[in-house]
Design goal:
heterodimer; A: alpha/beta; three-stranded antiparallel beta sheet; B: mainly alpha; two-stranded antiparallel sheet; 2 strands; flat
Chain lengths: ~250, ~250
């Protein structure tokens, strides 16, 4: 099956930045898969999401080189800061979640149905009549994800989507992402929550300084990522070990 | 407080275009008339609007802050420094044409400020969005207008947060005038930079939810616009047109 997003030898630099935020980037994002992206802070995971969803450089400015193909008809994106993603134009959570489908001019009944379905999926239907400005961080994050789901996206891109959630909420969100992939949605999630990501992701990409250092099956790569992160914290030089045995061996030297 | 204050007054329940039309009519009428008596009538109309909108509580403080210094400045500039003939009022000698000029200008400013503070206090931004959406106004224009209307409350809320954060880190905001000015720097800088960063993220979020899709947005709950209200707005337009016709025909008040 043709990937929904394909990057070949892509590089991206923000305006007025000499160093590229992403370089030598080749990867596919496929329908029906959860792809987890991780790496140390500043590795470029958030930028990768913007490039993959088509927002960079269209809205951010900057320069993209290489090849990018996006076949997604309805991309949905959730950024890391839920409080900046409210429209500020809605009286209620239900209106906020309905904003996306309403923007596409769908009939009122279809808009309401899509919003209700998305709120049910995220477990926020009980907040429907609340003023979005009065929500807690966790409630807000769930509402923002519901707002993206209301668009019924074929590509769902999420940046650290469980950062504001409690453990039960995070478990439920990751389980939902896995279930969405089963229905054919391509899910690309940047996360530091490797344990939960490993449960649902088919593929994982490890970034470092804007470059892919590992790309493979999630179970192996994310376990290896744990090993790599521990090794880095222990001051090991590159190349970092990508599995527990290699880590133990390295630390024993 | 500048901004929307929830209520059940006739203006709160009216179609959002009606209070805005009334405020706009006050503005235009204030410039159509040029004698202190006629400007006084416009001020009374603005006060009646504020009473109708149950907005006196919401507008008194900003009125005092905005309008009192204007009156003081106008009376000094025109009343004391104006031309002959002069009126002697005890120890004070005032220019008669200067005082008339100050009354006209001060009355205009007062009427306009009262009318627009009332409109801001009684027009709910989300209802205005729905009303404009129902009329097919492009989303970009709606967002521009509503963002402007909600700018002051949003900036004030952010300023309070920043001030709390800075005070918790030892910022002292009391003391001499120079100390107060110095305390502004750690407030204004994050306020402006934070607002710019937030705008960028909000643009991405709105775009992700189809705000720029080009489709005609669906209005889910447009406010009811009665025949009576449409007639009121028509009457306001007629009043303004007649005032300007009289002004340009040399028979202005």
């Amino acid at each position: 099956m043709k990937p929904i997003v394909r990057l070949v030898d892509a590089a991206f630099a923000y305006p007025a930045c000499e160093a590229p935020a992403l370089a030598d980037l080749s990867l596919d994002v496929r329908r029906g898969e959860v792809t987890a992206v991780t790496g140390p802070v500043g590795a470029g995971a958030s930028t990768l999401l913007l490039v993959a969803a088509g927002f960079a450089p269209r809205l951010t400015g900057g320069t993209l080189t290489g090849t990018r193909e996006i076949l997604a008809a309805r991309p949905g994106i959730v950024f890391a800061t839920p409080w900046t993603q409210l429209t500020g134009l809605s009286r209620t959570v239900a209106d906020e979640v309905a904003f996306g489908p309403a923007s596409h001019g769908r009939p009122p009944a279809a808009v309401r149905a899509a919003a209700r379905r998305a709120m049910d999926q995220l477990g926020v239907a009980h907040l429907a009549a609340r003023d979005p400005a009065t929500l807690s961080g966790g409630e807000l994050q769930s509402v923002v994800v519901a707002s993206a789901l209301a668009l019924e996206p074929d590509l769902l891109v999420l940046d650290d989507p469980a950062a504001e959630l409690d453990p039960a909420g995070a478990d439920a969100l990751y389980a939902l992402l896995g279930a969405l992939a089963v229905t054919g949605v391509a899910v690309l999630v940047a996360t530091q929550d490797l344990e939960r990501a490993a449960r649902i992701a088919q593929r994982a990409i490890l970034l470092e300084a804007g470059r892919v250092v590992a790309d493979g099956p999630a179970a192996a790569t994310l376990t290896g990522t744990d090993a790599a992160l521990i090794a880095r914290a222990a001051g090991c030089p590159a190349p970092l070990p990508l599995d527990v045995d290699a880590l133990v061996e390295r630390l024993a030297r | 407080m500048i901004g929307y204050a929830a209520g059940r007054s006739p203006l709160h329940r009216a179609h959002p275009y009606t209070p805005l039309a009334a405020a706009s009519a006050v503005l235009l009428l204030a410039f159509a008339v040029s004698t202190p008596g006629a400007v006084g009538v416009v001020v009374l109309a603005a006060v009646a609007l504020a009473l109708l909108g149950d907005a006196t509580g919401a507008i008194v403080r900003p009125m005092l802050v905005l309008v009192l210094p204007t009156w003081a400045l106008l009376l000094v500039l025109h009343g004391i420094l104006g031309g002959d003939p002069h009126l002697v009022l005890g120890p004070v000698t005032l220019s008669e044409p200067g005082v008339r000029r100050a009354l006209v200008l001060g009355g205009r400013v007062t009427a306009i400020v009262i009318a627009f503070l009332t409109a801001l206090a009684t027009v709910s931004p989300p209802r205005l969005v729905e009303a404009m959406t129902a009329r097919g106004v492009p989303f970009g224009r709606i967002f521009l207008l509503v963002s402007s209307l909600t700018l002051v409350p949003r900036m004030r809320a952010r300023a309070v947060q920043i001030l709390d954060a800075q005070q918790s880190r030892g910022l002292r905001i009391g003391g001499s005038a120079a100390a107060r000015v110095r305390a502004l720097v750690p407030l204004v800088l994050p306020l402006v930079l934070g607002a710019l960063a937030e705008v960028e993220e909000q643009v991405l979020a709105l775009d992700a939810r189809g705000a720029a899709s080009g489709a005609r947005r669906t209005a889910l709950d447009p406010p009811r616009d009665t025949l009576g209200e449409r007639l009121v707005r028509m009457a306001l337009i007629m009043a303004v047109l007649m005032a300007y016709a009289a002004k340009f025909m040399g028979r202005g008040a």
